[in-house]
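User: For a teaching handout, I'd like to show students what a predicted protein-ligand complex looks like in token form. I'll give you the sequence and the SMILES for NAP. Please answer with just the structure.
Assistant: Understood, here is the input followed by the structure.
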Amino acid sequence: MRILITGANGQLGSALREVLTGQELILKSRPEFDLTDPACEEQIRAARPDVVLHVGAYTNVDEAEREPERARAVNVQGTACVARAADSLGARLLYVSTDYVFDGEKTTPYTEEDPPHPINQYGLSKYEGERAALNLCRNTLVVRTAWLYGYTGKNFVKTIMRLAAEKPQLEVVADQRGCPTNAEDLARTMKRLLAGDARGICHATNGGECTWYDLARAIVRQMGLTTVVRPITTAQAGRLARRPAYSVLSQQRVSALCGPLPDWQDALARFMKRMPSPVPAAN
Ligand SMILES: NC(=O)c1ccc[n+]([C@@H]2O[C@H](COP(=O)([O-])OP(=O)(O)OC[C@H]3O[C@@H](n4cnc5c(N)ncnc54)[C@H](OP(=O)(O)O)[C@@H]3O)[C@@H](O)[C@H]2O)c1
């Protein structure tokens, strides 16, 4: 099976490369492969994959408020190109999407049947990307995940690991609830989903739920530090993009399809054990 990965050097792309070692992989990344260049459609066709793991995306949630057109170009038009190419080859498409397609008004886990209602530009572009993937490629599975962290690139877990070692006190948002997800666990789940033939939408995060504040406290605790973590509100954090107050995703479908992902605490502990400390500032 020939598996093409877009965004192959990102957090999830890197985890997929590791988990899929031994398979025939076609890795696509910038600058040679740019989702905003219509030529990317032909580049995929020429590679003749059986499966496309479309992981590449514009992922800067706050910047997307400043440049929504760029977010759309990558996440909507780029995804449309990928989906058309996959469909013309009769290939299977897995498109990775986000909990930020929801508005956060619910208080119980969002299921795949809940109607999306994005409240920021990133979420809107990913939702329109989902529509493009599902409408333009017959054999599509949208995999929605959340609060992703991996060894490559920047993420909340690595940032807190670094800051907790440097500062006596941290302020972290305590009024957003979701579920942190270890990129390696998601990559393993995607590998298992590839063995089946599910289509449509499937939520996939680590198990359980917490706030960013709970997550930061768990990180500090595991590091054995005395750093004080102070809870603040979303309004106090003053970020550019709005974020859903609650975006826990139901794990019922993924559990039925290929078994549940591990709980977030277990996933975090495994990640931190492998992550070199101190975490380099560039990361
Ligand atoms: N991070 C999260 O918390 C989170 C949460 C929910 C869902 N997701 C979704 O999960 C997927 C993987 O996220 P991630 O955290 O692995 O993201 P990431 O680390 O930011 O990786 C995204 C990759 O996409 C590539 N990319 C960006 N613009 C591109 C373009 N115009 N053409 C080609 N490639 C481009 C980037 O290339 P460069 O390396 O050149 O920048 C990067 O390698 C994304 O679809 C994202 O929307 C992420």
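For the handout, you might add this sentence: The domain at 2-154+180-208+243-263 is CATH 3.40.50.720 (Rossmann fold).
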